[in-house]
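Listing S7. Sequence submitted for prediction.
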Amino acid sequence: DGLTEEEQAYVDEALEGFDPERDAPMTEDDARCIATSMVEGVGVERLEEIGITPESFSESGDLPEGALEEAEAETMVDGIAECIDFRELFLAGFNEDGSLSPEAQECLADAFDVELVKRTMVVLLVEGEDALSDTSGPGAEVMEAFLSCPGALE
């Protein structure tokens, strides 16, 4: 992997919490790739600066809201997108309870492009969920996609 000892410690800790059953369809290789890209994208120094230790990195896997600059978040999201099909996982999250019809799933798949998913993820990382307004920016585009798909909001 070419990671430093410090970077490897973050990746190893992140994988401690990996559960193949809970985290499916993500594989351990996917999780390793994501953790590596997060560590490489942000850097150990910056992670420490925002109060993330290897242990806390593994416990939540989340970064504190507002901890990242937009450019850092974009780098991280691009790295993660090289590991997994972001769009597919994003869309699967909408149907965790199995309530979407095949038609609604297909409509949402057509409505969401990778760039929208990436922009949404960047906003979530930089500003948090509250910043996803349904009247402007990526949040509005997400809402528009749902409204354009019959049965997606039931």
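Caption to Listing S7: primary sequence and predicted structure tokens for the chain studied. The mean pLDDT is 86. The first helix runs from residue 5 to 16.
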